Amino acid sequence: MALDLQDFMAKVIAKDPDQKEFHQAVEEVVASLVPYVNAHPKYEKAKILERIVEPERVIQFRIPWVDDKGEIQINRGYRVQMNSAIGPYKGGMRFHPSVNLGILKFLAFEQTFKNSLTTLPMGGGKGGTDFDGVGKSDNEVMRFCQSLINELYRHIGPNLDIPAGDIGVGAREVGYMYGQYRKLANEFTGVFTGKGRTYGGSLIRPEATGYGVIYFADAMLKTKGESFEGKIVVNSGYGNVGTHLIHKVNELGGKVVTIGDQYGYAYVPQGINAEMLDFIEPLWARDRRPAKDFADEFQVEWRAGRRPWEVKCDIACPTATQNEINGDDAKALLNNGCWCVAEGSNMSSTKEAVDAFIEAKILYAPGKASNAGGVAVSGLEMSQNSMRYSWTSEEVDAKLKQIMAGIHETCVEYGKVDDYVNYVNGANIGGFVKVAESMLAQGII
Ligand code: NDP
After folding, report:
1. Vertex 420, ends 414 and 422: CA angle to 5°?
2. Which of 151, 208, 233, 330 fits 356 for a cystine, CB–CB 3.0-4.6 Å?
């Protein structure tokens, strides 16, 4: 029987009616896959899609910890082990009050295709907790991370599941989680990526996602004979992805004119310069301070309660969170002449926004393709840890560039129809084939 998107989605929704971000992620992928799967009936016969939307394993657990006042706090932790057909589970940990199972399933699902696109042997996983790091002392963060690992350590391992950072999880949190894992497991292995440089972290890993987005965007621009030189870029976040992305745009001669958070955004018409970036870098990553502090420090305009997508630009780079560009934002971007969108955050755009970009035939890269640089360098960190060796920055950066160029080529191969590259279809089909073939080869498990 042929695959039908509506029938398929009805079953997915009926199973977990509350998981709307997961439904959105599945629908986007399956919509791309329908013609491909129907042209290759072996996938439907083996129920590959039905299997691929079902996590191999979901772990949910209690995280009790004691705050600085001596009060007991309880958070909820999760790890979604989505698909290990092509390698051990790999994907970050998110610490944010909005975290729930539906969000982590969407992220783990996306991760499966993204990891496949990198060509490295990594399966898909994701985890997280509703812990909010804002306003917590360093000791509280440490005690929390230790308690989380007291349970999670038995479910992860260097050949089983290798977590990393995501929203709210940077080098500090990875360090505390890794330390506790090492103590409990009584071994020194590369079980986390995004580790500090002194204990096995890869050079360029912190920069990799932001740099990778710009390498991917640059490859898209080149298809139009264009470059970043003189281009205006609007950006949302100022965490790991946002700050490194700004660095790379500056290096290539572009101008990033915004950073923001859930409360508004700062507008810097002359572009964020090196001095400003030095101030921004620790603002969220280390100090968890609001973006308005940047506007106050440099006396630039703060637009409260507004989103950066209203600013005139050539290129838009969302780097905060899922669904941060909605249909109206997409219209505003298009009306203002934006002709390239490269996603740093995962599933940055709602379905309405994605449809608007594709209908307008602009260059549009979904996060699973354009932000894959982070996990790609995590894969390289795993290789270096296994070899007990480390590559130089230049070596890692060169490999990152090569991987991003390869992902771009894959998207073009599977997404080009006539003169337009649909990067959504390209990424979804390109990511699917390797996982599906591996599942077929390994039998019904
Ligand atoms: P960080 O925690 O370092 O930064 C997150 C940024 O997003 C902060 O500026 C934060 O500010 C903002 N943000 C978070 N939630 C919201 C919200 N609801 N509305 C507006 N702004 C928000 O995270 P990362 O930079 O690591 O991650 C950013 C995105 O990139 C995520 O979607 C993540 O999944 C994705 N990504 C990250 C990778 C990595 O290597 N780190 C790899 C691939 C993808 P505030 O909370 O104050 O609003």
Report:
1. 45
2. 330
| Residue with the two structure tokens 């009805």 | 10
Task: Among 95, 113, 240, 263, say which to mutate for ligand 1: greatest number of ligand atoms within 8 Å of CB.
Answer: 240
Verify whether ligand 1 is closer than 6 Å to residue 319 (CB atom). yes
Instruction: Write the residue with the smallest CA distance to atom 48 of ligand 1.
Output: 261
- 142-160: average pLDDT: 98
List Cβ neighbours of 175 (8 Å cut-off, separation of 6 or more): 195, 196
Q: Is 216 in the pocket of ligand 1 (CB under 6 A)?
A: no
Q: Which two structure tokens, joined as six digits, stand for 300?
A: 């630039």
Cα–Cα distances in angstroms (integers) from residue 44 to residues 4, 203, 440, in the given order: 11, 42, 11
Instruction: Average the pLDDT over 193-197 and give the result.
Output: 98
Question: How many whole angstroms from 193 Cα to the centroid of ligand 1?
Answer: 17
pLDDT digits (tens, 9 = 90+) for 21-64: 999 999 999 999 999 999 999 999 999 999 999 999 999 999 99
Residue 428's nearest CA partner among 42, 125, 41, 37 is: 37
Beta-strand relationship, 363-365 and 340-342: parallel
pLDDT digits (tens, 9 = 90+) for 81-106: 999 999 999 999 999 999 999 999 99
List the catalytic residues: 126
> What's the rounded mean pLDDT across residues 381-395?
98
Question: Tell me, what's the pLDDT at 1?
Answer: 77
Termini Cα distance of the chain: 22
Q: Among 141, 192, 241, which is best to mutate for testing ligand 1, by the most ligand atoms less than 8 A from CB? A: 241
